[in-house]
Write a structure and sequence with these properties.
Two copies of one chain form a homodimer. With 123 residues, the first copy, chain A, is of the alpha+beta class. The first copy, chain A, has a six-stranded mixed sheet with strand order 5-4-3-2-7-6. The longest helix of chain A has 10 residues. At the A-B interface, strand 1, helix 1, strand 3 and strand 4 of A face strand 1, helix 1, strand 3 and strand 4 of B.
Chain lengths: 123, 123
């Protein structure tokens, strides 16, 4: 980016709790947490919670960062994927979240799934 | 990294509040927040608070991520820089933190300062 936007940085405390919107601008959930690669400092996933949206208890959807777009006008993140795609995506219980960074299983499942939507696996 | 560590990811909620230690293992402060580059999803700075350590009110020290090392044995972040270096580093009030991502001023000051300790400016 040659041209700097006014605020190109954002605090993690402002990201968590931020609404997640679909393309139509409807609120579908919020960012619960961020999963960060310790060594590189890259945010790998935004952990989304859709609350009652899926209606099957509290489950968490790790979404590769590149699939999210921040919309400053709406002060929220926009996912341009269809609801069905998000519903069918791998999701985890809170306990399973603890194992998100352990081993390759979730990484493989998530990037296999979101790879078709442009997400590139981290090293 | 060809070999995966057991947990190579960490949640932002576990990073904030985490103690920051010096080389000798003494607690010198904690991670107050993380400053993330919106587009790339890279953590640019860990925002450190040293509390009473500096004795000059609540000021925040943005530290380039590469200057911090996570120590899983201590469940904390280690800064291997001398106390004097941290004291002399650019620091901000809570109000100034809001402007951290606006324009190039803080970026230039911080990376001019920490560049000698291996930090590389973000694009």
């Amino acid at each position: 980016m040659g041209v700097k936007s006014p605020h190109e940085l954002i605090m993690s405390s402002r990201v968590t709790g931020t609404p997640v919107l679909n393309r139509e601008g409807e609120r579908i959930g919020h960012v619960e947490d961020l999963s960060i690669h310790k060594v590189s400092g890259h945010v790998i996933y935004a952990i989304l919670s859709f609350g009652g949206f899926l209606g099957i208890g509290e489950r968490f959807h790790p979404l590769p960062w590149s699939v999210l777009d921040y919309d400053p006008d709406r002060n929220g993140f926009v996912v341009s994927l269809e609801k069905k795609i998000l519903e069918d995506a791998p999701s985890l219980t809170r306990e399973e979240l603890e194992a998100l960074g352990a081993g390759d299983t979730w990484r493989t499942r998530l990037f296999d799934y979101y790879g078709r939507y442009g997400a590139v696996p981290y090293i």
